[in-house]
Amino acid sequence: MSGEPHERTFAVMLGLDRLGLVALKSPLVSAAVILASADRARDFRQPPVYIMGAAQGSESAYHLVMPTGEPYGGANFRTLAPRLFGMAGIKPGDVDVAQVYENFTGGTLMSIVEHGFCAPEEVNEFCTFENLIAPNGRLPLNTSGGNLAECYTHGFELVTEAVRQVRGTSCNQVPGAKISFVGAGPAAAPVSDLLLRGD
Q1: Residue 154 — very low, low, confident or very high, per pLDDT cuts 50/70/90?
Q2: Which of 50, 178, 185, 186 could form a disulfide bond with 75, CB atoms 3.0-4.6 angstroms apart?
Q3: Annotated catalytic residue: which of 50, 62, 72, 152?
Q4: Quick one: CATH architecture of 49-198?
Q5: 165: burial class by Cβ within 10 Å (0-12, 13-18, 19+)?
């Protein structure tokens, strides 16, 4: 059975648990985020999670398949990432866990590079199973399974997993995770980013 409670519930509803089958993706998945002031959030049942920074945009004349000059190619985060980290007042090395939309493997890898988690020439050494796996990887990535294994809600599940990580409630919890990164829509225009922190 999958680790996520909502997936277990869906598998039981369909009787898949009796057949020894696992529901990898539910057609009935939904998600929601409630935004409130810090004062109001303290009154909710769940611990609050704070937005450190959020950014959306695109590089000038961005187009993945028809590069307009140097540097060649990219995931479209080169101008966005510095704004995000500047807004939050942190560096990429301060991030404990990352959730990156994996529409294409290349876009995810370029996103990791463009956000400064590693240099382009380090990507082969950085993006290894040992570095990207929860709970003890250098930068655990898509700890809920992402679009491929949790569900496909156009990246929104990445936001809910980022929240679970900094609350300490993820099924694949990264010990002591305080800052979670979400990168959405690599190799598209526009793209967006989010940095969250727990209490």
Answers
A1: low
A2: 186
A3: 152
A4: 3-Layer(aba) Sandwich (3.40)
A5: buried
Instruction: Give the neighbor-by-neighbor strand order of the sheet with 179-184.
Output: 49-57, 191-198, 179-184, 97-100
**CA nearest to 181, candidates 64, 78, 52:** 52
pLDDT recorded at residue 175? 96
Q: Which position among 50, 62, 72, 101 bears the catalytic label? A: 101
Q: Which residue has the higher pLDDT, 164 or 199?
A: 164
| Nearby residues of 27 by Cβ (< 8 Å), 6 or more positions away | none
Domain ranges of the chain: 49-198
pLDDT of residue 70: 60
Q: Which residue has the tokens 């989010």?
A: 194
62 is catalytic: no
